[in-house]
Design brief:
The protein is of the alpha+beta class and about 500 residues long. Strand 1 and strand 2 form a beta hairpin. Helix 1 packs parallel to helix 5 and helix 5 packs antiparallel against helix 6. The chain is rod-shaped.
Amino acid sequence: RIVVPLATTKGNWGVLELYLSRDAAFSRHRKRVIHILAELAGTFLENITLYDRLKFLLEEREKRIRFLSILYQVGNAYRWTSELRKRFFLALRALTDPQKGLGLPEAYFFIRDEARGVLKGVMGVSWSGESPWGDQDWTVDEEYIRKIEGSPAFYDLRDVVPSGLPWGELEKGEVVHLPSQGSALPFMRKGVVYVVFPLMAGDNLVGALLVGKEGGFDSEEIHFLTMFSHQLALAVESARLQEVLKVTGKELKEAQERFLHSEKLAALGELAARVVHDLKNPLVAIGGFARRLHEKMAEDCPDKVYTGTILKEVEEAEKILSNVLGYARVPSLKKRFADINALLDDILFLHAEEMRDRNIVLVKKLDRSLPHISIDPAQMRQVFMNLVSNALQAIGKKGSIAVSTTRVERDGREYVKVEISDTGGGIPEEVLPNIFNPFFTTKSTGTGLGLSIAKRIVELHGGEIRVVNNPPVGATFVIYLPLGDEGESSNRSS
């Protein structure tokens, strides 16, 4: 029996153990051959071990390069858009696309909802077999996004998890491993390991990333997903801050416009008061004497038509002065809870006979489930009366008017949306920018204050009025009025 170590300068890789029959013996030559074979075997084993080690290191290096490449590509793509939805979409692709991303079978995003104290579901992807992403390059093209959103692999978590999730331990910035069974989330599957990564912007939790994979995640993947979450958290916070900045800038611009408008109104009010004062007395005198002269004239007097014209024009001048003075004053609202549909019904009833005579079709789609809202009914009646009258004037002798109400959400608030449309051919493009400006009119009669007054009344209610022009068909005026407290509105309406 002979035992020879399989050793090299780098270490011992094993032993070579040989046995001979009882009567045989190892000659010097045999021993020399055995030692040479042992050296060769040791070198061979060393090379194999080094090869395996090098292969492992190369694979790890390629894996890390791939991870870094994904981080770089998605980070670069974040710069293409400041829209939060599109940034989540890019991150979702980076995690689940097997060609351009990590290729995970499941990934879901949640965002923090401060008001409700939960993590609100945003979007997710769960796929097997063929990837939903295709071979499209990195893009935030809306058509491509809608295509993915329409695929069976896409989840709109606002519908799947409408109540949201408590953030619990995530606020501490810790990665949470979820149990494979007993989860309340409807999309989670048995046998899949799920891990939740907090999206931390500094010390603030802004959202969460939930990923799942059969067999779980190794340490390198956990490390990559942690870095990915940090990058995404910054992208989310950046998008939210840009949105806040955009809203703040818009509000600042609107405040500046309101200030300039109020300055203009103050100057106009002072001027109007002077003009009305200077013109009212002569008009009263002219009207009084013309009326007396008109009454004294015989019915068959040929000059009576002239005095009648004077009286009519004086009344029109007084009306114009009254409108100018009324616009210059800021109206005080007398709010109460009222039914917006009933208000529209009354106004449309007043014009019903005129519409029948002129063959104008009325299309009315009023949401009868709307709660009563806090408005000044008299002021809003003036707004709707003006818009319906304008629509009738635009149509001419034949056409249609559509009036609708519905409940909508804008920027986290609920509004009643009122639309008044006509088929009057639309508004000329050169006129459109000025339609809400005071004293601007394309009519042969009138002061051009109707739409300007309507705009001011709506804005005093905390609402908004806008026009959607659709030439040569017609135009639609859209009004948004805030619902306020839903419970209070509902109670007042009962």
